[in-house]
Design a protein that fits this description.
This protein is of the alpha+beta class. The protein contains 17 helices and 18 strands. The relative contact order is 0.12. InterPro entries: FAD-bd_oxidored_4_C, FAD-bd_PCMH, FAD-bd_PCMH-like_sf, FAD-bd_PCMH_sub1, FAD-bd_PCMH_sub2, FAD-linked_Oxase-like_C, FAD-oxidored/transferase_4, Oxid_FAD_bind_N.
């Protein structure tokens, strides 16, 4: 092992091979402190060639690799196991924007680039990179691609997969695949890009990507709406799609429990409505029209929703601070839940047409099985993705309730499967959900996935213990 570590030091420099436990700690702890791993070393290469050299060294010695971006995931996908036999390979030093091509509306970036750096770079060129996540100040584009992250703008722009044209990848043998093509059309065989996106580092290491850019909107209109149930929220979604099809960017559902947690724990957020209702919708329109015209059009469609008795109240943000308060409300739900205590998270997707029925049935099932449990339901209603989280009853500690996680998951995931949904919409599988995957994926699907894994990583060195 000492010989291996010395080769790593020779390749990337002694200061970038971390073996001290204190130096390693920030890389080996999941950000919620729910999982800690061990590694024989944390490696911090500076470029693709160094990544390839390290992977080649690991391949020759059959040393497993856990790739890591911003370590903001929720399924323990970027933390090694507790054996200490693997290396953790951080991509944080690969953080350059290599090229911005305005005429082609593309940006080529390295995997360690923070998402908000990419957003700001696009903005400086009067362009938009639309991926938007609560963790955008700390998550990296490599991690976003590895999990095929979603976010609040999927309704209009799609998941990270739809925002990527090409990749650069270091394979499990340490070869560099340069697939950094900036083409919208390239029908030349298997689409290898899509094999690596969403693979959670189990097939190879993404080191760079070509991303799509879009025209920067000249106006953004934000509205916060209160209503009585999910059925009405879905009807409102259909109405907004009818009248604002090309402008509707986000349509977020927030239940009352989620909102009250935010107001209790996040002092920067102010209450928008005095009257409490069961659900709320945060929607956003963005286009190249003027703000006044967009606001008038939204007011008109909101009036129609009032007349159809779909909504109880509505507030259109008139200032940037009001819009920021709306979005701070939505983006602070997970933080507020964390301050309240540990909880059982579910990142599920369902056919939009079946979401209301699912929520009604699953709420009833959980309330019967665990009386007093708090159902923190929010998410991207426009694309069918719910963060359906369960917090313990007030009188039960988080630690005791977490012992029931497998039972709670079974209730939720069995119903998700029954309603033709998926147990992971945008967080991935990682280590946390790998047993659940075996339960709900068909044998044919699992066999094909294993064949791909075996072909591209025959020695199971790339992020072992994740997905499978």
């Amino acid at each position: 092992m000492n010989n291996f570590l010395q080769h790593c030091r020779d390749l990337i420099g002694e200061r970038y091979v971390l073996t001290d436990i204190d130096q390693q700690a920030v890389y080996l702890s999941e950000w919620r402190q729910r999982r800690k791993g061990k590694a024989c070393a944390v490696l911090l290469p500076a470029n693709t060639e160094q990544v390839a050299g390290l992977v080649k060294l690991c391949s020759e010695r059959r040393i497993a690799i856990t790739p890591q971006g911003g370590n903001t995931g929720l399924v323990f996908g970027s933390i090694p196991d507790s054996s200490g036999a693997a290396v953790l390979l951080s991509l944080k030093r690969l953080n350059q924007v290599r090229q911005v091509d305005i005429d082609n509306n593309t940006m080529t970036v390295e995997a360690g680039c923070l998402l908000n750096v990419i957003q700001n770079t696009a903005d400086q060129h009067q362009r938009l990179f639309p991926l938007s996540l609560a963790s955008e100040g700390s998550c990296t584009i490599g991690g976003n691609l590895s999990t095929n992250a979603g976010g609040t703008a999927v309704l209009r722009y799609g998941n990270t997969r739809e925002l990527c044209l090409g990749l650069e990848v270091v394979t499990a043998e340490g070869h560099i695949w340069n697939g950094l093509r900036s083409l919208r059309k390239d029908n030349t065989g298997y689409d290898l890009r899509d094999v690596f996106i969403g693979a959670e580092g189990t097939l190879g290491i993404i080191t760079a990507a070509v991303l799509k850019l879009f025209p920067k909107p000249t106006s953004v209109v934000t509205a916060f709406i209160s209503l009585d149930n999910v059925e009405n929220a879905l009807q409102l979604l259909h109405l907004m799609q009818r009248y604002h099809a090309d402008s509707l960017t986000a349509f977020e559902l927030i239940n009352s429990c989620s909102l009250e947690l935010v107001l209790q724990h996040i002092p920067q957020v102010s209450r928008i409505f005095y009257e409490k209702t069961a659900y709320y919708v945060l929607l956003e329109l963005s286009n190249t029209d003027t703000f006044d015209n967009s606001s008038r059009k939204l007011e008109s469609s909101i009036e129609i929703a009032f007349n159809q008795a779909l909504i109880r109240d509505a507030a259109i943000a008139q200032t940037l601070s009001q819009a920021a308060n709306c979005w701070k409300t939505r983006e602070s739900i997970s933080e507020a839940q964390a301050r309240q205590g540990k909880n059982i998270k579910h990142d599920v997707s369902l056919p939009i047409s079946r979401i209301a029925e699912f929520v009604k049935v699953c709420d009833a099932a959980l309330s019967t099985a665990y009386p007093g449990c708090q159902l923190v339901t929010f998410g991207h209603l426009g694309d069918g993705n719910l963060h359906y989280n369960v917090s313990p009853p007030i009188e039960i500690s988080s630690e005791i309730f977490l012992e029931k996680q497998c039972e709670v998951n079974r209730v939720v995931h069995d119903l998700v499967h029954q309603f033709d949904g998926s147990i992971s919409a945008e967080h991935g599988i990682g280590e946390l959900k790998k047993d659940e995957l075996q339960r709900y994926k068909s044998p044919v699907e699992l066999a094909m996935m294993r064949q791909i894994k075996s072909a591209l990583d025959p020695h199971n060195l790339m992020n072992p213990g994740k997905i499978f």
